[in-house]
Amino acid sequence: MAALKDTNRQNKQPADDQPLLEVTDLRTYFFTREGTVKAVDGVSLTVKRGEIRGIVGESGCGKSMTAMSILRLVDKPGKIVSGEILFKGKNLLENSTREMTALRGKQISIIFQEPKSSLNPVLKVGSQLLEVLRIHQGSKRKINRDEAVSLLRDVGIPDPQMRVSNYPHEMSGGMAQRVMIAMGMACEPDLLIADEPTTALDVTIQAQVLDLIRNLRDEYGMAVMLITHNMGIVAEMADIVTVMYAGTAVEEARTDDLFEAPLHPYTQGLIASIPVMGKVKDRLEVIPGMVPSLIDMPPGCRFAPRCVARVKHQLQQCEVEEPHMIEAKPNHYVRCWLYESEES
After folding, report:
1. Domains plus CATH for the chain?
2. Within the chain, which residues score under 50 in pLDDT?
């Protein structure tokens, strides 16, 4: 990245009043023999330059599929059926395949969980780094091995001159993830999508990887979309948080506001289930019931069958009609009949 710092900085700053990324009512469905899986069902969010947007929720809630939809990487039988994905004001759903190929890795990069399964096992990591540069920069200038070494050095890999010749299996999980981050940052993207970047890493390495992402954000001014199921990571890293449940967003707020006063019963349950150091509990809090099938959603609010607040407040509407996302407090949005009832 240091080697590219002077060559990729032009025309990267959008207008102050224009979000870098704006997703509106995105719906991505999978058409299977068993039925239609509504993996992403009406998700809307924005990401500003320099912002870390946390996307949090249980496995299968649509977090990763939202990211894959943004990059137009949804394979059959999946299909983006409706919505709008504006990146720097341009709708990516209108881009050609060639335009998307040019954009991925250069303007929007993604790093995946399980880095060793994402790296090619038969190619040295230096070759894989240089391939990224050749695809996006090769027509402009000569690419050499020193740039791969520089990229590894920038992400904190010790002895990069030696490691550039390593195969993925010769690296630890933490170093392999740093290689993935180096590949993602090679062309200094405007947006970095980090999909569960600390999965399968021990706690110490997790902290190092997260610090690296945050430091790169600060240095390059990029935006980060951080996808995770770990509320602790969100609390530490994110500026603003979207909570997803069963394919849709149920709450959105600045991180401090979300953790100080969560509004949606699902978010409250997630936060209550986090162990707190120094506080002894007889048992951890749990959210009752199971996540509904994305093929067979319950009528009304999709969280209603598990919602204790619905029973407590005797809300009948929850089982009949799905609530809208409303601004219950300034810059704090929630999808819940409890707050719509309060407004009315």
Report:
1. 2-245 (3.40.50.300), 262-343 (no CATH)
2. 2-15, 343-344
